Amino acid sequence: MPRQLLRSTQPLPRRTLCSIRQPSLLQQSWKAAARPRFAAFSTSRPTREKEGEVDQELSAKLESELRIEKETQDSDKPANIQKFFDSIPFEVEDIPGQEEVVLTRKFGDESIRITFSVSDLNNIDQDDDSFDSDPALSDEADEDEAAEAAQTNVQSGGANTKGAINQGRTQNGNFAVAPEDSIAPSDRAEGSYDESGVGEDRAQEPSFPARLIMNVEKPGKGTLQLEMVAQDGNITMENVYYFEKAELADAKTADQDWSRRNLYLGPPFGNLDEDLQVLLERYIHERGVDTALALWIPEYIDWKEQKEYLNWLSNVKTFVDA
User: Fold this and answer.
1) Can you name the residues that pair with 168 across neighbouring β-strands?
2) Contact 303, 78 (CB under 8 A)
3) What is the pLDDT of residue 85?
4) Are 153 and 164 in contact (CB under 8 A)?
5) Taking residues 19-32, what's their average pLDDT?
6) β-bridge mates for residue 228, sequence order
7) I need a labelling partner for 28 at 20 to 30 A (CA). Which of 1, 11, 14, 255 fits?
């Protein structure tokens, strides 16, 4: 029998169990480390935490403020505001919850839009606090007001020599009615706004400057924008801008705002020729921006701010109680 065939027929030696390779301790530890581990979690719904300790006290205080404000205020418009509201040639756009109020009207082919904000009332409150904290600033402000009042009395009626009728212009461009041009209450037209206010209490109320922006737009001709301040029945004009593109007057995009910044918008109103100032004042007066409007706007701002404050108190209380 050939040797190769003999080898193939011989039985193979049997391997013992001890010859099987056992993994080392290092391999066992590596496998244990490589095994993914996940943190145990629970799907049960967590219990709701108890409400804050101050929530009930805060809610009670808000309720008290609401009750006091409702007792001292009337939800309807005051009679003097409503009377002028019904008589003005403007449409009033007042959206609840928003600070800005818009007056619109048509004047020939012109579209006129006047905007003002209740934020002016809050801003003047902050300014008053700064004066109260520094007596020196308060004294300087009183001296400036006294000097301005004295100069106004001297210059009232001076614009009559330049063609203005029944109107005098102060140094800052204010409308000032001369004493001989005042109209007695009995001679006023029925339904007109009482420019003298309601009794002596109104005369003692502090006034605040309300900023107005008036846009006069003509189709295809651009927009004339006038920045003004209404205070104490006076209209002070500060700037007059012209925009060839009407959309730049109220820039709503970053591109429009950038294009507006690069435009030459004209000098400050006080730097214009005096005759030109008088004519611009008569220009806005013909379009309804007069002493009556200057008295009505601050009152409307004060009434709207109180109304919005009530809504704010109610909304905050509803949130706290939820």
Assistant:
1) 176
2) yes
3) 79
4) no
5) 56
6) 212, 237
7) 14
Alpha-carbon span 110 to 104, nearest angstrom: 11
Place of tokens 């244990």: 32
Residue with tokens 């805060």: 58
Residue count of the chain = 322
Pairing of strands 175-176, 168-169: antiparallel
pLDDT score at 229: 95
Side chain identity at residue 294, one-letter code: A
CB atoms within 10 A of CB 243: 20
User: Cα-flanking dihedrals φ and ψ of residue 228, to 5°?
Assistant: -140, 165
pLDDT tens for each residue of 125-170: 555 554 455 555 555 556 666 666 555 454 444 334 334 434 444 4
Average pLDDT over residues 44-69: 80
Task: Name the DSSP class of 47.
Answer: P
Can you tell me which residue has the tokens 């928003």? Answer: 98
Instruction: Give the residue with greater pLDDT, 76 vs 31.
Output: 76
CB 169 within 8 A of CB 284: no
Cβ contact 169:158 at 8 Å = yes
Question: Which residue is associated with the tokens 């007695």?
Answer: 184
